[in-house]
Amino acid sequence: MSRRTTQLAGLDLNLLVVLRELLRERNVTRAAERVGVSQPALSAALARLRRHFEDDLLVRSGRGYVLTPLARQLTRQVEDVCAAAEQLFATGSSFAPDTSVREFTLLMADYTLTVIGQSLAELFEREAPRARLRIRLVRESLSADLPRVVRFVDGVIAPPIELEEQPKLRSAELFRDEWVCVVWAGHELGDAALSLTDLQRLDWVVPYHREPGVALPPVPRRLAALGIAPRVALSVESYQAVPALVAGTHRIALVQRRLALQFAERFDLRVLECPGEPEGIVESLWWHDDLDPDPAHAWLREALSGIGEGLRDHNPG
């Protein structure tokens, strides 16, 4: 038996769940409730984790706790490992959605959640009421880390950036969208059509703004393709937040049409066609091909395909 195998055999894998909940909750009492054990039992488990990592992990600050630098580093790793373990032990030769208690994990941007979130929630309540769905939001641009992360979740819903050339990844198109500009209804532009000159001179709200480079996020990449170097007044790590940051100002933003139409009335925004014919948006489900034989995953793929088909039948206009 190899040294690595011996180390794994000697681990108490229940500590993985304890570690995950401690890092999520940053509170011993709440973590104990999540795991379903007493507070003394969870405190004992925390002591074992501290001995194993030779680190405090959680440090008291005021009336709460904060994570140590090592704990922050472990947060992403333990989420991936627990998701992979749950995926492994949930795999079976059959799947009954109406009785399954399996947990599914999907990774997507908050824009995508705006588009499919309600349909997804209703589908699980209707067809798999006991199953659990965990949605992890992409907080930053699609990066070189996603090809690794997709191996530990049930799927990533995203454009093909950084994923289409990856081996062993499968994909299925869900829906399409297009880029439009949004401005406040009281904007100085009035009813005039936008020009590229307007885009260059106006102040911008840009989600996930990065300086020009190899892996630009979607909005900066589209503006760069139009030859626009935007004067960025506000940057935010969210798509959903953009309309609120445009409202009542003389700023402009480039957003997905489906999102723009959902927020236009609420924030008194005008939706304008973007000059220069920006490239369209294709949102696809990406998964590792190891999941192909899993009947539960096959159900999820079919369910998402049905949601996507409904969106394709009602394209925004």
Automatic annotation (TrEMBL):
It holds the Pfam family LysR_substrate. Belongs to the LysR transcriptional regulatory family. SUPFAM superfamilies: Periplasmic binding protein-like II, Winged helix' DNA-binding domain. InterPro entries: LysR-type_TF, LysR_HTH_N, LysR_subst-bd, WH-like_DNA-bd_sf, WH_DNA-bd_sf, YidZ_PBP2. Keywords: DNA-binding, Transcription, Transcription regulation. Residues 11-68 form the HTH lysR-type domain. GO terms for molecular function: DNA binding; DNA-binding transcription factor activity. This is LysR family transcriptional regulator.
